[in-house]
Design brief:
single chain; 76 residues; mainly alpha; 2 helices; 89% helix; rod-shaped
């Protein structure tokens, strides 16, 4: 497999990972809002907030990697 094919395959994998991360984030935010509406602000609520922030960080890292690999394809 050529170098460009490897980069394209990795880029597609990163896009799938980003899509899954966004899906998990949407579900998690929905659950956090539901707990807040039910006035159940407990340890699970705060753990969900921390986990949501962590997922946002992961999404940012994935987007940066996608940008890097897109630039790499442009150079090939």
């Amino acid at each position: 497999m050529g170098k460009i094919d490897e980069v394209k395959e990795l880029l597609n994998t990163l896009r799938v990972a980003m899509s899954i991360s966004f899906g998990v984030l949407v579900i998690l935010i929905g659950s956090i809002v539901k707990r807040y509406d039910l006035e159940r602000v407990d340890i699970l609520f705060w753990a969900g907030i921390v986990f949501a922030i962590a997922i946002i960080g992961v999404i940012v890292l994935i987007v940066l990697q996608i940008r890097k690999k897109t630039q790499e394809i442009k150079e090939l």
